[in-house]
Write a structure and sequence with these properties.
16 strands; Alpha-Beta Plaits; Uridine Diphospho-n-acetylenolpyruvylglucosamine Reductase, domain 3; five-stranded antiparallel β-sheet; 4 domains; about 450 residues
Length: about 450
């Protein structure tokens, strides 16, 4: 530990674990984006709130920037440390702090994984309903930082709806206890909700009070093959009107090809351009009968070409793998990703305009898209041609993303649905937020982090 600043930190914060080996700097200095080379000063792994506070105060005095770090599963560069920042990893702060059965509140440290929270909730006979494929590695702190959504937003909403309270270390080292689990609290600004989606730019989330709910009723999973793009929203409207949906996820035939090559099992023989994995309540036998009638209505209208209903938990898991395995199956190609959101009512018109834009602007590139039809969230993955240099590929994608952002603006959408802004989407924030909003956001950031040490360069400069 040759850097005198780190020697000072180690002396000041007894018990703080510091990593400086190159392999550790690379591992902790990046997230799932691979566009920036990690170059952190060091990695700090506190185990207590006091250590977090002391580290933040040291950083203020020394003028060292901090990148708060969870599971680093983000796709927008929000957890990248490429300019000599100190990575503040919360992975050692992964304990369950308590459970209140009366309030149905589970209090956990920020470094606990989403999957561990699911297991703890299940042990109490309850459910924490936020869920997505990275559940085994993402953390609650990271989920809060990006207001993570996932595959069941159509039924349960995003992370924001399930945060009853937060404990946060602000940019000046002060400890804030926000909302304290209250259901009703009209005593001024709700700073808890301000922290949700702030990407570590206002404070370091150290613990959270999570609301739990009843487990969902028994569900049935169905895979649908659709003959054309217009059928997507038609089928969603049909299913939402007559079934109690828990999830409604779609992907294209191109996406299917990649996930099958990655080991998923084919469930339907004939190829169609679009597919949907739908999950709905199936408490009684009549629910299944209604689902069959709805399916037949879709076939009769020409919106559904084929389908299959899972006959076992294993088959349901295999159908879900077709959707949840997509990100992993595309990862070796290092795609350029867009994560966008619109009102559901705006989806039909936008989809046509988007598809035309991508076909025209990416004549040499394969575009794979999928997403959450039920909440208006699309994931667009652009795959680089083998003969194109990375710099040229990124420049081309950034040019097209500006056009996509302008299209989103016209349709009232957002350039980020659930992955945050980070570094990747920073140039396009003005397509979603007005100049007045951005100015206010800067002002808020300055209040919580007066010296600008928390995740600098993320969201905006």
């Amino acid at each position: 530990m040759t850097d005198p600043r780190l020697a000072d930190l180690a002396a000041r914060v007894a018990g703080l674990r510091l990593l400086t080996e190159l392999a550790d700097l690379i591992h902790y200095g990046r997230d799932w984006t691979r566009r920036w080379g990690p170059a952190p000063l060091a990695v700090a792994l506190p185990s207590t709130i006091a250590e977090v506070q002391a580290t933040v105060r040291w950083a203020n005095e020394r003028g060292v920037a901090i990148v708060p770090s969870g599971g680093r599963t983000g796709l927008s560069g929000g957890a990248v440390a490429a300019r000599g920042e100190l990575v503040l990893s919360l992975e050692r702060m992964n304990r369950v702090l308590g459970f209140d059965p009366t309030d149905r509140l589970l209090e956990v440290e920020a470094g606990i994984t989403l999957q561990a929270v699911h297991e703890v909730a299940r042990g109490h006979g309850l459910l924490y309903p936020v869920d997505f494929a990275a559940r085994g590695s993402c953390t609650i702190g990271g989920n809060v930082a990006t207001n993570a959504g996932g595959i069941r937003v159509v039924r349960y909403g995003t992370t924001r709806e399930w945060i009853a309270g937060l404990t946060v270390v602000a940019g000046n080292g002060e400890l804030l206890e926000l909302n304290r689990g209250l259901v009703k609290n009209s005593s001024g600004y709700d700073l808890r909700q301000l922290m949700v989606g702030s990407e570590g730019t206002l404070g370091v989330v150290v613990s959270a009070q999570l609301e739990l709910t009843d487990p969902p009723p028994p569900a049935q999973t169905m895979l649908l093959a659709l003959p054309h793009m217009d059928a997507l929203m038609k089928v969603f409207g049909l299913f939402r009107a007559q079934l109690r949906l828990q999830a409604f996820e779609f992907f294209t035939d191109v996406a299917l090809r990649y996930v099958l090559a990655h080991g998923a099992q084919r469930a339907l023989d004939a190829d169609q351009p679009f597919y949907v994995v739908a999950e709905y309540d199936a408490t009684e036998e009549c629910d299944q009968q209604v689902a069959l009638l709805v399916f037949e209505d879709g076939v009769r209208e020409g919106w559904i070409a084929d389908g299959v209903i899972a006959q076992s938990e294993a088959q349901a898991a295999a159908l879900w793998r077709l959707r949840e395995g997509l990100t992993e199956s595309l990862a070796p190609r290092q795609p350029y990703k867009n994560d966008i959101a619109l009102r559901i009512s705006a989806m039909p018109a936008f989809l046509h305009e988007m598809q035309a834009l991508l076909a025209h602007e990416y004549p040499r590139m394969e575009v794979v898209w999928f997403g959450h039809v039920g909440d208006g969230n699309l994931h667009i993955n652009v795959l680089p041609p083998e003969d194109m240099e990375q710099a040229a590929f990124l420049a081309e994608c950034e040019r097209v993303t500006r056009l996509l952002a302008d299209t989103l603006r016209r349709h009232g959408g957002s350039i980020s649905a659930e992955h945050g802004i980070g570094l990747v989407k920073r140039p396009y924030l003005d397509s979603t937020r007005s100049a007045a909003e951005i100015a206010l956001m800067r002002g808020v950031r300055g209040v919580f982090d007066p010296h600008g040490i928390l995740n600098p360069g993320k969201l905006f400069d």
